[in-house]
Amino acid sequence: xxxLVESGGGLVQAGGSLRLSCAASGLTFSWYAMxxxxxxxxxxxxxxxxxxxxxxxxxxxxSVKGRFTISRDNAKNTLYLQTNGLKPxxxxxYFCAAxxxxxxxxxxxxxxxxxxxxxxxxxxxx
Length: 126
Known about the structure:
Elements: E1 3-7, E2 10-13, E3 18-25, E4 32-39, E5 46-51, E6 59-60, E7 68-73, E8 78-83, E9 92-100, E10 115-116, E11 120-125
Parallel strand pairs: 2-11
Antiparallel strand pairs: 1-3, 3-8, 4-5, 4-9, 5-6, 7-8, 9-10, 9-11
């Protein structure tokens, strides 16, 4: 049974930082590209960042570029998202997701991903 479990969310003031983690089990972690998505209240889920199975092929949404850093540790089956310079508009539930590493599906689309975590709430106060 595949499980993706996010942690590290919380309440932070604007300009602050959080490090989100996603612990994976039940799958061969290195066979999957991994991504972060987020969904704010009343809004559609949106792509945040993606990282290839080996740690390369990294892409970010324009809204987080230069502030967020995605990384992974295949030995620990864990995905990370370092979020710096947080803004109130970053407030959302953040989800990690797994996509087969040789998939041709567009990485910025949620439908490209086979497995999802339950999410962790990030709230940024102004």
